[in-house]
Each structure stands twice: as C-alpha cells, then as structure tokens.
From TrEMBL:
Family: Belongs to the sigma-70 factor family. ECF subfamily.
Keywords tagged on the record: DNA-binding, Sigma factor, Transcription, Transcription regulation
The keyword Transcription appears for this protein: yes
Organism: Sphingobium naphthae
Top-rank taxon, per record: Bacteria
InterPro entries: RNA_pol_sigma-70-like, RNA_pol_sigma-70_dom, RNA_pol_sigma70_r2, RNA_pol_sigma70_r4_t2, RNA_pol_sigma_r2, RNA_pol_sigma_r3/r4-like, WH-like_DNA-bd_sf
Protein name: Sigma-70 family RNA polymerase sigma factor
Length: 175
C-alpha cells in the first residue's frame, strides 16, 4: 500500500533533519509513485525506469529547496513533470500541445501547491468512498483494478464512485 501525503512529508522532513533512514525510506516509497506517474503519461515507453532514477536523483539533489510548509507531493510531481519534459526534449519528440498542457497543469511550485490544496479541499466535500476513488485513480495514478484492490471493493464500484464524485464536483464548481 502506498504512503500518504503526511507520511511522505514526515519522511522528507526527517531526511532534511539528518535522519538517513527516513531519507532512504522516502526514496524507496517514491519509486512506485513515480513509476505510475510516468507510465500513465508515457504509455508503452521503455524509458520509465530511467526517468524514475533521474527524478530520485533530482529529489535528492534539490531536497534543500523543499518548503516544509507546503505539500510534499506537489513539490515531487513538479520535479517529475520537468524531468519528463527535459527527457522528451532530449529525445526531440514532437509533443501535441494538449499533452503539454496536461503535463503542465500549473507552471510553478507555488501554483502547483495551491492547486493541490484546492483539490484536497474539494475532495474533502465528497463522501469518503468517492473522494478516495478519485484520489486513487486521478491523483495517485492507480488503475481502476489497483484502486479497487486497495479499497477492497469491485472495479465497477470504483468507476461509479469516480463518476458520481466528478459529477458532484462539477455541480459544486458551477455554483
């Protein structure tokens, strides 16, 4: 089972405070998150492992830039997005503008952190089952099958929860 935002943040802060075991545990915990992140965006690519390693190195090298008052995963995924874009540039691949927009939902760390906080607040207004299904599939990048297994429910239940939750969020946002 994956680590929560709070657990990852605690490991990061522990590492920043000199706890080598916490830093090592953080890097190990990030591997499946980053694998899902890259597999989802680079389907069929054999470059996922390289990108995960590059991102782990970047996290290690830039750890001093992490703001303890901000969500950890927003910082992590900002690094991951820029690693992916750099990688695609090195490969000189043509990327449709729609894909770039999806990769760069927000430009900077501040906007990314604020967006993550807003999404968290919105999801907290939903029933727990719907909120968890959306978090697992749309934020954490799990497949429907993975989310169903994690929640101990059927795949169709996850799909219905996601659909109903997104519909409820859209209604709230429309006012």
């Amino acid at each position: 089972m994956g680590q929560s935002e709070d657990q990852l943040k605690a490991l990061m802060i522990g590492g920043l405070d000199g706890d080598a075991a916490a830093h090592a545990a953080l890097l190990r915990a990030l591997v499946p998150l980053l694998e899902r992140f890259y597999r989802r965006r680079l389907a069929g690519s054999n470059e996922v492992d390289d990108l995960v390693q590059e991102t782990l190195i970047a996290v290690h090298g830039r750890r001093a830039t992490y703001d303890r008052g901000r969500p950890f995963t927003a910082w992590l995924y900002a690094i991951a997005r820029y690693r992916m874009i750099d990688h695609l540039r090195r490969q000189r691949r043509h990327i449709p503008i729609e894909d770039v927009e999806a990769m760069l939902v927000t430009e900077g760390f501040e906007a990314s952190a604020n967006a993550r906080i807003d999404v968290t607040r919105l999801l907290d207004t939903l029933p727990p089952k719907q909120s968890r299904a959306i978090r697992d599939t749309h934020i954490d990048g799990q497949s429907i099958a993975e989310a169903a297994t994690r929640a101990g429910i059927g795949e169709s239940d996850v799909k219905i929860s996601v659909h109903r939750g997104l519909r409820a969020l859209a209604a709230r946002l429309k006012g």
